[in-house]
Protein: Chaperone protein HtpG
Organism: Labrys wisconsinensis
Amino acid sequence: MSVENQARAEESRAFEADVAKLLHLMVHSVYSDKDVFLRELISNAADACEKLRYEAIARPELTGEDPKPQIRIELDKDKGLVSIVDNGIGMSRDEMVDALGTIARSGTKAFMEQIEAARAAEAEGTQLIGQFGVGFYSSFMVADRVDVVSRRAGTDEATLWSSDGKGTYSIAPAALEDAPARGTRVTLHLMDDARDYAERFTVQRIVKAQSGHVPVPIVLVEAPGAEPAEIADGAALWTRPKAEIKPEEYADFYRSVAGQFDDPALTIHVRAEGRQEYTLLAFVPGSRPLDLFEPARKGRMKLYVRRVLITDEAEILPGYLRFVRGLIDSADLPLNVSREMIQESPILAAIRKAVTGRVLSELEKLAGSDAAAYEKIWDSFGAVLKEGLYEDFERRDALLGLARFKTTAAKGGWRSLKDYVAGHRENQTAIYYLAGEDAARLDASPHLEGFRARGIEVLLLSDPVDSFWVTSALGFDGKPFKSVTQGAADLAEIPLVDKPAEASPETTAAVAGFIGFVKQTLGEAVADVRASERLTDSAVCLVAPDHGPDRRLEKILAGAGRLDATQKPVLEVNPRHAVVTRLAAAREAGAEPAFVEDAARLLFDEARILDGEPPVDPRAFAERLARVMAKGLG
Ligand SMILES: Nc1ncnc2c1ncn2[C@@H]1O[C@H](COP(=O)(O)OP(=O)(O)OP(=O)(O)O)[C@@H](O)[C@H]1O
């Protein structure tokens, strides 16, 4: 043996820091339902079989005389052992070090953060945590030692990985007679309180409930030397006729394919014939997966070609549908070319298009038939779907039709644009919106006063993505989107709800003079100062100039360094407000100019504060306020 090989022969290694942390959490278990470890190991075994099925197309010698994929669960009650054995692709020594000593999956990192946050807050985190699968490491919830022996297909080397989950693992060559002829054996040395998992009935129950539909047959060997008995037939669920599949079967399959624990909110199972022939089995999850807002925005759809798994992260659906889980099985794609070539095939491009359209039309159908179920989906995934409004020009109208909004009239519920337009006021020419941080705060914004007084509904847009699409969308049903914080509000044509229609009272000469004075005083700080049409109760507010970007969008762009200088705002003054009319009258009557100037600057700062910004100069603001109050007290 060479020196180098000797050094590689047996080693003890420390887990990557994140793995150690995850293992610690696993052992001091956060899961109430420990059964999940079996599902995770079976799913890894099935993936390994499917990977081999694919590699064997180009290299049939890899499967040799044992072409039929199989997962075997072996129990040894006396010794407290349970083993999951597969004849899949197997792992080389290096692959084992990579796969079983690090965390590759982004969802797992998010999962850990979630647990830690829940623990820090001493919150009831387990409910939430129980919704996510965490892979191989979950074995350590039930085992105090895990041995993995693996032999990669087509090689004559086997490796043994072993760990007690306490910070280190060992890795060493294994004798071929101790390893499967091909594939992997994972052996769990069960903890005393987990010995039940070596019982036939327990295992059968769990497999039936969680893994009955994995596309690889599963056999059970209930004791050393016993005859293997099939407990799952490995028939791919999606190849069966829809009418024969029960909702529970779909739900089980969804859980195993999506790694979720809930029920799907929507199941789509279609067999397309004609120009492209494929089967789509897709699910909208019942709750948000943890990696939903990962910057990579990766989808998790599996791509099969005639039941051979090509990849489990195929880019089949656009980024804004990344929450949809499931698979496509195509009959037309070529199998004997590389994965990359399959993914670049024009046939797949056509399938992508058709499948995206199909998912959207199924969502629309649900919105029509069961509004409450659809709104629940919107609650979870609306913010993601809205990304499509600026990314997918072709489907923008369909997406606008699917969109739901909080509005000033919706009383906490959701409104569609169709309903908004149907309820529009006489002479109303636009769909009005207000964008900002949270819907409740938006609802209290002074900009809405004039709209409320006229019974005009305003969309309250509080998702970060809103400011992006709303400025590029052309409109809906012929009506443009218009921000209530932008430009002059031409509301004069729309009658007030409570009072008889009347023109706004003439701005008196004194008020006009005062507004001119404010403008002169503020000078370069504002683009303009004008009498407001939109205010009824508040004295002042800030708006964007007629042709400038919405003020919130402007803040986002400036924050991201994509806008050099922000535009100056327009200060709108309510000519009917008591403070304004009395200040105007006082000025006419010869009040001290310094006092009126203080008041003018205070009004500007008041408008900034209402917009969530600090006064221009907090110290000067405090001094002015003190002077004006002192004067008020006589
Ligand atoms: N039975 C097995 N055969 C071959 N490789 C395996 C087997 N079990 C685990 N692995 C390897 O170990 C890796 C880590 O497994 P783990 O269950 O932690 O996450 P994962 O399977 O990648 O994630 P997911 O469960 O989301 O697919 C796998 O990606 C795979 O490369």
Summary: Residues 40, 43-45, 48, 86, 88-89, 91, 99-100, 104-105, 133, 135-137, 184, 259 surround adenosine-5'-triphosphate (CB under 6 Å). The chain has four domains: 3-232, 237-378, 393-504, 505-634. The first helix runs from residue 3 to 9. Residues 542 and 611 are 7 Å apart (CA to CA).
